[in-house]
Design brief:
The protein has about 120 residues and is of the alpha+beta class. It is built from three helices and five strands; from the N terminus they run ββααβββα. Strands 2-4-5 form a three-stranded antiparallel β-sheet, with no helix packed on it. It has a two-stranded parallel ribbon with strand order 1-3. α1 crosses α3. It is globular. The chain starts with a strand and ends in an 11-residue tail after the last helix. Bound molecules: zinc ion. The site of zinc ion (ZN) has 6 residues, from α3. It comes from Aureobasidium uvarum. Pfam families: Clr2_transil. InterPro entries: Clr2_N (IPR031915). This is Cryptic loci regulator 2 N-terminal domain-containing protein.
């Protein structure tokens, strides 16, 4: 079965992204398409995870497969840091002004926004 496409930038999904992207000299904003496959993989790993946390995720998402497509959530930006060689990423836009450095860390925040939850368990909230 084909995965269910989720375009996080669609107006049906709420976003608390600030749009503030304080890129430094060695950073540049990248296309969302370079990041969304990693976010999709992070979701797949969470949905396969045994235990209570995985159970909670499966209760929310069921047994379907999902694929993040389109753009980043409104107000969030995928930034590549030091494009010469290193592969560091930063996801800017969190209201705290801090950034995520992996899809794994951004995923909980994305999930909280997707399910309209006030309780976010990401490390920046
Ligand atoms: Zn959060």
């Amino acid at each position: 079965m084909d995965p269910i496409d989720i375009d996080l930038s669609a107006p049906i999904y709420p976003s608390d992204g600030t749009g503030v992207v304080p890129t430094e000299a060695n950073e540049r904003i990248e296309a969302a398409g370079g990041f969304l496959p990693a976010l999709t993989s992070a979701l797949e790993r969470k949905l396969r995870k045994p235990g209570a946390h995985g159970d909670a995720m499966r209760a929310m998402f069921g047994n379907d497969q999902y694929k993040f497509t389109g753009q980043m959530p409104v107000g969030y930006a995928h930034v590549r840091r030091d494009p010469m060689g290193r592969r560091d990423i930063r996801i800017y836009g969190h209201p705290s002004g801090r950034y995520y450095n992996s899809a794994e860390k951004f995923l909980p925040h994305v999930v909280a926004m997707l399910v309209f939850s006030d309780h976010c368990w990401c490390e920046l909230c």
